[in-house]
Amino acid sequence: MELTVIGCSGSISGPLSPASSYLVTAPHGGRSFSLLVDLGPGSLGALYGLIDPSRIDAIAISHLHPDHCIDLCGFHVASRYAPNAPWDPVDLYGPPGTLERIRRAYDPSLDNSDAEDLTASFTPHAWQPSQQVGPFLITTAMMSHPVPTYGMRIEAGGEVLAYSADTGPTQALVDLARGADLLLAEASFLDGEANPSGLHLTGSQTGDHAQAAGVSALVITHVPPWYDTEQVLTAAREHFDGPVEAARPGMIRRVGGTERVGVAGGD
Ligand SMILES: [Zn+2]
Ligand SMILES: [Zn+2]
Question: Which domains does the chain have, with CATH numbers?
Fold first, then answer.
């Protein structure tokens, strides 16, 4: 299994990165299966630098905050108007109501009789506790966030990637990530500030969750552009014994191996 960071800026897109989006690939039926996890602002354009989006096999949306899903509008546009359009509808996993959420974002008309038919681009599947998506067994768990938010445990070939999505401190993340080869986890707050509860993690809290879950490696993501990533990273390292690094666009990591695969399009 391989993880490629498309975008990792927290809450909004940043000067150096789109908002949240990750490409997860694994062998399946003699080829590589491509799962796109979240699709925040700017990420669809960045994805074109790695793969033609028409080749994406499935999309998994953690929750319906715009910084994780709004480029589904752009995906629909590309699916209809790119030179190789129309694309076959792609399997879209997400919270119940995902398609309606995107239709409302896409279509400024209040007249539903002329509503955009997003099923031309997406085949929606509401998240279940577990589901098989190509080579991936995806287990979901509800995180601690103001809207229904699904953390994901993605398993293939004995390798395990866990993704926190957005969350405040919760045992559910520890349970979901238990023993994972790699935990991709958010750290959006700074320690020592009056942070609201049930929203995001600080770097030290993310480190604590990784430590409690006994994961092999931690990748910090979703640091917003108004905070210093190095400060968050330092806090996480003080609370987790294993390797910790910050996500950056184009970063590729093999899940379940220690080998560094490389960085797409240079470093
Ligand atoms: Zn977010
Ligand atoms: Zn959120």
Answer: 2-263 (3.60.15.10)
Task: State in Å: Cα 65 to ligand 1 middle.
Answer: 7
Residues in the chain, total: 267
**Cα 166 to ligand 2 centroid, rounded to whole Å:** 5
- Distance in angstroms (rounded) separating the CA atoms of residues 263 and 267: 6
Give the burial string for 95-117 (b: 16+ CB within 10 Å, else e). Answer: beebbebbbeebeeeeeeeeebe
CB of 252 within 8 A of CB of 51? no
Q: Is the pLDDT of residue 107 over 90?
A: no
pTM: 0.94
Instruction: Identify residues whose C-beta is under 5 A from ligand 1, the ion.
Output: 67, 166
pLDDT-derived band at 259, boundaries 50, 70, 90: very low
pLDDT single digits (tens) 50-68: 999 999 999 999 999 999 9
- Tokens at 236, concatenated: 């996480």
CB 4 within 8 A of CB 235: no
